[in-house]
Write a structure and sequence with these properties.
Layout (H helix, E strand, L loop, with lengths): L10 H18 L7 H8 L2 E3 L8 E3 L2 H8 L3 H12 L5 H4 L12 E3 L3 H13 L13 E5 L11 H20 L2 E5 L8 H12 L2 H6 L1 H17 L2 H5 L2 H9 L3 H14 L2 H25 L13 H13 L3 E4 L2 E4 L9 E4 L7 H16 L3 E7 L3 H13 L6 E7 L2 E2 L16 H16 L4 H4 L3 H21 L7 E2 L2 H4 L7 H18 L3 H6 L9 H11 L1 H11 L3 H20 L7 H24 L9
Helix pairs in contact: 1-2, 1-4, 3-4, 6-24, 6-27, 7-25, 8-10, 8-13, 10-12, 10-13, 13-14, 15-16, 16-17, 18-20, 22-27, 24-26, 24-27, 25-26, 26-27
Bound molecules: arginine.
The site of arginine has 10 residues, from helix 16 and strand 9.
Amino acid sequence: MTAADHSPTAFRAALRRMFSLALEQLAADGIVTLPPAELAALAEQVRETSEAKFGDYSGTMAMALAKPAGRKPRDMAAAIIERLVAVPGYAELFEPPGDPVGPGFINVRVRDEALAAALAVAVRDVRLGVPPVARPETIVVDYSSPNVAKPMHVGHIRSTVIGDALARLLRFRGHHVITDNHLGDWGTQFGMILWGWKHCRDDEAFAADPTAELGRLYRLVRKVADAKPEELAADPAAAALAARYPHAGREVLAETAKLHEGDPENRALWERFMPVCRAEIDRIYTRLHVSFDHTLGESFFQPFLAGVVDDLVARGLARESRGAIGVFLSGDDAPPLLIRKADGAFLYATTDLATIKWRLEHWRPDRVLYVVDHRQGQHFEQVFETARRWGIEAVQLVHVAFGTVLGDDGRPFKTRAGDTVGLEALLDEGVERAAAIAESGDEARDGLTATDRRRVAEAVGIGAIKYADLSQNRTTDYIFSFDKMLQLTGNTAAYMQYAAARVEGIFAKGGIDRAALREACREVHIPHPRERALALELLRFSEALEDVEADYRPNVLTAYLYDLAGCYSTFYDELPVLKADAADRDSRLALCDLTGRVLRKGLELLGIGTVDRM
Ligand code: ARG
């Protein structure tokens, strides 16, 4: 039998299955008495070990099982081991565990032959040995979703970058993913632009650069409408307007209301502004290499809102309260979730409820992920709870929340002038700074032309911004620092891109036909500990992807790739590859080939570009 006849082996998943069978046997033998669901959950307690001397994986469930059974953890571990080794197929993949370690850890080592065979399969596999999920689901990812007509700022990058990475990754895992950019294209920001258009537009400026003019109107009118003395003091144009139109705030709201009521003039202006707004954000998406299957903004759901409110009222889930209509989620005394204001206007929550219903009817998702700022946590809790009471139960609704982007001073990221930093300017700066680094090279030495350098700068600059975001635990705030994210060492995009390019370099240098190398890869020999460690790390790619999905944390993948690059470095520094003996050379080249592909695939799933040379 050759490697090609095997399907890929995911060792951790196989071990968890075997532990599960062992625990079932333990229950059948009367040693533990726990409901099957709890046993199954305990069988999942298999992690990678911290040090190779403890084996490759460690089962830690003996501790939790010992106490209720009135046994010592080590005895419980011994009882589990006895049954684990008897599970059919165990001996093919794993060494018999030694005595339990510490408070009952069961340490398991993958058999070298099994590892070598799995590696050969992965090298030949277009999916790099990553098995697709057993039960593919339809998953809607709602992300980016900026409020258009306001300039996009650094805060929007998190939703866009995290959402895009999750969508790519879930798709690669084998799920049916539908991405939807739920644009805020119907909100009060249009009231400001409409008012600004009518009172202080600059036609020439609009003709020359419509986006810039709408942006100017938005910023100006916001100050006029808010009428904060300190803001007006710093902006004479805004102050003059505010003096002339003391009721601007109220008038702005009236413009929004007219738009929503279908006023022909405002509607026509909105239709004129929308393409301008879309062009602005599309330019950013192009630069970020982000695209969506659908862009159904809030405006799309307007026709359904009245029906949603009527239905919730008819079912007794919502009722009137001081003229408004709300869903009373936590009793009559707590404030309700408002779905219609006293003046008849619908709210953000109403649109979200209509959107859930529409997506269910049209896409039948198993899960919907909302990649949105953590400050909207309460909104989603209330919307999800209302949806459940409305009878929407089969779909899993998840708020994938993230923290705030901070400046060096630990406060929300702002420019010196106090404005939030525009996203486009930020991307430019990232690329410029990367260019300064890339351009310092010498063509005679590294053979990179000016065009190559530009390409490197774009990939590194944009990649740095994305990677810095993705490598943070998403729920914490993070400090935005160009100096840190553009470093060439440490867990940064540049380092990872360089690591990937370095692997490519070997094949160019050795003039090696990689396709032929893969095709011929039937057996791999990995006798050296460095080879073995790298092989094992490569085969953990699927585990990293599985763990990202478990709680939607792309930083699990960046951490994995960083470890892999480190593992590869040690291997490459200690062992010859191109100059290795014939017996070792092909196996080592196969390890290099798979390392390069896993690094590239991993970065691709994060939405980060790579270059062949840098
Ligand atoms: N437009 C909203 C904002 O910028 C985010 C929308 C998120 N998605 C949703 N279905 N509510 O705050």
